[in-house]
């Protein structure tokens, strides 16, 4: 009897392999959970983003630049180098005249807001431009020094 007990013990060998089947099962369960919950996590607001065809800006004429300083004062530059301080009503009148002269689609208007300015005067300038008939307004920024292009 002792001989058969030794034989049984010898037939059982220890396996030095890792059983990965339970890990695969857990992975598949997690994959299914993430696939089901991912569409539910897309919360937010639907925004109609503008399309871009990556063309460079065609500037046949100098753009009109409305500058807003940190105190909320408006400045209008119709030609490069000409910068005059204007009130909100004067800005609206001059821009409306430029829109009628050049057309709504051809007039390029940019808003250059001081980085230290409150956001409200910049939004006021954009509202004045909208009321004057400008369809597209660009926001100007200056790249940081040392930034890669």
TrEMBL record:
Keywords: Cell cycle, Cell division, Cell inner membrane, Cell membrane, Membrane, Transmembrane, Transmembrane helix
Record membrane topology: Single-pass membrane protein
Main location: membrane
InterPro entries: ExbD, Tol-Pal_TolR
Assembly behavior: The Tol-Pal system is composed of five core proteins: the inner membrane proteins TolA, TolQ and TolR, the periplasmic protein TolB and the outer membrane protein Pal. They form a network linking the inner and outer membranes and the peptidoglycan layer.
Entry's family note: Belongs to the ExbD/TolR family.
Protein name: Tol-Pal system protein TolR
Protein source organism: Lysobacter firmicutimachus
Gene assigned in the entry: tolR
């Amino acid at each position: 009897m002792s001989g058969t007990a030794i034989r049984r013990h010898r037939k059982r060998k220890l396996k030095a392999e890792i059983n990965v089947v339970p890990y695969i099962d857990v992975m598949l369960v997690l994959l299914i959970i993430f696939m089901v919950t991912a569409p539910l996590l897309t919360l937010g607001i639907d925004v109609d983003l503008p399309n871009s065809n990556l063309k460079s800006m065609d500037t046949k004429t100098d753009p009109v630049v409305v500058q807003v300083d940190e105190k909320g004062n408006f400045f209008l530059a119709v030609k490069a180098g000409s910068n005059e301080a204007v009130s909100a009503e004067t800005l609206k009148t001059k821009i409306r005249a430029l829109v009628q002269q050049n057309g709504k689609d051809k007039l390029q208007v940019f808003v250059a807001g001081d980085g230290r300015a409150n956001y409200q005067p910049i939004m006021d300038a954009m509202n004045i431009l909208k009321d004057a008939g400008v369809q597209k307004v660009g926001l100007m920024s200056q790249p940081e020094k040392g930034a890669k292009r």
